[in-house]
Amino acid sequence: MNRRLAIIEKFQKKIQKTFNDLDIKPNDITIYIQAFSHSSFINDFKLDKVNDNERLEFLGDAVLELMVSQYLYTEHADLPEGRLTKLRAAIVCEPSLVTFAKKLGFDQLILLGKGEEKTGGRTRPSLIADVFEAFVGALYLDLGYDVTLQFFNRFIFPNITEDLMVGILDHKTFLQEYIHKHKNVQVEYQLISEDGPAHFKTFTSIVCVEGEKLGSGIGRTKKESEQKAAQEALAHLMAGE
């Protein structure tokens, strides 16, 4: 058995475990081999460049944007287009894709050329992010839209952390901007209650404009409760437009 076939056979055994973990039943394993084949691996064996993962990366980038856009449109009905665009950019940026890929163990599956392996290609963020996009493209081509969406619902969207959204999902700022468009008044927040033991408190806040309560929120911190109150107020105001 030549070296390339031996590497591919080993890869197939490793990725089968990944498929089992993800509850994915592939139809065409060759498309996933291509998804994880870096150009350096293809060059080592003097194969045609179309066999590397760059074409699948191109497709996966578009599929990724569609999946994330649909998710944000549904989950954040109170956000205007500009905020949705910023949030999508934060989710599909390289650091986020690297995080998703590493959680799934994709960095350990990449097929690299000898030189790229020696120079640390397996830890290069851009390379890992590209592989994630290529996998998404392969999954979409092999199993279709519904299975790809299930993959995102189970393994990607739950890993979109609050930290990722800091500065983007600032509902208090959105609310102040919204109110200023209609009347030049200040938004006021009031802490209504603190409940629970010191190590596990919950805070309840309300948000008011000119004495009128617009929303309320409960959180583990005063700041979180205010953000949730502002989110509820925004949803209420936009529903009435």
The main β sheet shows up as: 3 strands, antiparallel
Helix content: 55-70%
Q: Name the poorly predicted regions.
A: none
What is the distance, rounded to the nearest whole angstrom, between the alpha carbons of the first and last residues? 69 Å
Overall mean pLDDT score?
89
- Given the helix and strand composition, which structural class is it? mainly alpha
In short:
This protein has 241 residues and is mainly alpha-helical.
Account of the 3D structure:
The chain has a 3-stranded antiparallel sheet with strand order 1-2-3. With 241 residues, it is mostly helical. It has helices at residues 3-22, 29-35, 39-44, 54-75, 81-92, 94-103, 114-118, 125-155, 162-165, 171-182, 222-239; strands spanning 187-195, 202-209, 212-219. The mean pLDDT is 89. 28% of the residues are buried.
How would you summarize the topology of this molecule?
Layout: H1 3-22, H2 29-35, H3 39-44, H4 54-75, H5 81-92, H6 94-103, H7 114-118, H8 125-155, H9 162-165, H10 171-182, E1 187-195, E2 202-209, E3 212-219, H11 222-239
Antiparallel strand pairs: 1-2, 2-3
Helix pairs in contact: 2-8, 4-5, 4-8, 6-8, 10-11
Give a quick set of tags describing it.
single chain, 241 residues, mainly alpha, 11 helices, elongated
